[in-house]
Specification:
The chain is built from 18 helices and 20 strands. By secondary structure, it is α+β, with helices and mostly antiparallel strands. The longest helix has 25 residues. It is elongated, with a radius of gyration of 31 Å. The two termini are about 60 Å apart. The structure holds adenosine-5'-diphosphate (ADP) and magnesium ion. The site of magnesium ion has 4 residues, from helix 2. It comes from Ramlibacter lithotrophicus. Molecular chaperone. Has ATPase activity.
Amino acid sequence: MSQKKTLSFQAEVAQLLHLVTHSLYSNKEIFLRELISNASDACDKLRFEALHNNALYEDQPNLEVRVSFDRQARTLTIADNGIGLSRDEAIENLGTIAKSGTREFVSRLTGDQKADAQLIGQFGVGFYSGFIVADRIVVESRRAGLPPDEGVRWTSAGAGDFEVESIPRPQRGTSVTLHLREDAGDYLGTWKLKSIISRYSDHISLPILMRKEEWKEGEDNKGGEMVLTDEWETVNQASALWTRARKDITAEQYQELYKQISHDHEPPLAWSHNRVEGATEYTQLLYLPSRAPFDLWNREKAAGVKLYVKRVFIMDEAEALLPSYLRFVKGVVDSSDLPLNVSRELLQESRDVKAIREGCTKRVLAMIEDLAKHEKDEAASEEDKGKFAQFHAEFGAVLKEGLGEDMANRERLAKLLRFASTQSDAVSVSFADYKARMKEGQEAIYYITADTPAAAKNSPQLEVFRKKGIEVLLMTDRVDEWALNFLHEFDGTPLQSVAKGAVDLGKLLDESEKQAAEEAAETFKPVLERLKEALKDKAQDVRVTTRLVDSPACLVVTDSGMSMQLARMLKQAGQ
Ligand code: ADP
Ligand code: MG
């Protein structure tokens, strides 16, 4: 019944494996974190399925991970009693790349080892990282609920193919055995493994067990050695990090949890951990990443917050917990109120979820506001001062979506935006900075939208503003046009596009200029009439303008009209 079969890896997997084994030497030990994290995921999945089918626990209700090694055989084994894999699942999940994110990753590999290794930082390679230290991996597993003779053994040397065969396996769950490479002997020692586990996996909420070691005296008191006993001990803290008090958690532990849930190897810019009490009770641990993911602009993109209910993992990517414009935020929400069997559909309607979503949004905005405060704080470290600029460079544009999406927080969001302007090449001017520099008599915040900073700066529409020394904000993000439709004023001052309508520079013009303009309008009346007639299908109006200094003419749209930038964008989108 063994039906041994050799199958080929999906092409992307083969590519990934090649990369893993050839360029990931610098941080070898992450393989252990990845494998323990898979074991922990598998236990989460069992717990979740068992909510509807308690029999899945069989006779082993205590979920755990065991890490053991065999010096003679040079093997290291990570075993869990989680959900396990059926034969088909082993073929599917270990032989192909199911996650679109990983597939995208592989498609972006350049072949340049250094650049590719950095990319890995953004994605994580999960199970395949075992091949950094192993030249053969044997996975044995039985899925919870299947009979004991429907186990599977999956074997691969990490080249083009793998083997599967059916085996009897009484115990539920998965064991991953690594046959260590020549140069990976380090991992055959209790102390080394314990120290990696405490660095990377301490926050895992399951117990991680290892065999206890004991000192054994040598014969005749000559030397001695540590030997493994048959007793197992827990080597991590085994309580979910977010359930502990803030004061008992180190920055390193927070960062480790972040890496684990985000698959981002760069540390986060900031995090915020709170227990919220009151009508709706929950714990939130939210992180701001330091880099935008490659798929930031995909609004379908998986949300980054995991939902737990009373410490039981419920789902990844719970998009109901934050508005879409905060889709880059990573973290965990653990609710005490939601039912354990809550579904995505239920989440959308729950009043508790609405309260959680508002609470989480406020927290995230407060975190960003804190970064902005540090920017101008003399006492802050150089590193802290730079964090807001970094945040803004990575996520400022997506934050603008919030102007349209989150009315309740529109003003808070507007304060967090920064722009380049005719007086600043750096994208660092806030609306408040702008207001502080407004000219005597100036009544609006002026801005121009364009595809690029160069196009914005060279627009003829800016001529009179330049002449008058009036600052104009340059908006060149793709979302600007859309987002600004929702923001009509800032702190009592209207926002005005320089490309719309008759920009009324009224009080900013001196008497002689006004007079000249009026005279010109009179003088050119017959010409204007003829132009209007000639352009009647193409232009709504033709008028003498004060906005140009050097250029003879420019196009503008009416106040209520779509701006040209938006029109161009819609045209590009085929509308
Ligand atoms: P990820 O964990 O991000 O999904 P991995 O490469 O780490 O990606 O793992 C690939 C898949 O292999 C997992 O999604 C899971 O289906 C399966 N898998 C890996 N390890 C285990 C395990 N210990 N128990 C059950 N399934 C596992
Ligand atoms: Mg994984």
